[in-house]
Amino acid sequence: MLGTIPVLSPLIIGNEGQLVDNPAFLVHKKQDKCLAFWLLSTITNDILVHFTIAKTSFEIWMTIERRFGAKSNIEISSMHHALYSLKKSNFTINEYLSKVKSLSDNLIAAGSLVIEQEQVSIILASFSIEYESICVIASALLCLLTC
């Protein structure tokens, strides 16, 4: 299998009973080589060395996925920690909300669900005492909407 499409036999039995090249296999192989070339042409030289043993587009894609696709548990834990420990501090409200949204989006992209209610709770918990009245009202509204 060169990819997700089963590979045909490279040889078939011809009209006279002899083995001949399978034209469908040759087309498939040519398409795979073009795709492999295109994938490799999009990779920068400094990481291209990690793809030297990949011979097919499927192998190239699997190498890309292995190296860059999956977030490790440590990275996901680190992002969760960053989200839960983020404080408003000297950020403007817009900057702070953008940081919460960005961390939440990164966690979601890594396969770790962060629901909107959780984001709101994180935001409300980080505000200082000067925002307490707003937090109380927002928490009550959140509870009414979700309870």
TrEMBL record:
Domain of life: Eukaryota
Classification via Pfam families: Retrotran_gag_2 (PF14223)
Name of protein: Retrotransposon gag domain-containing protein
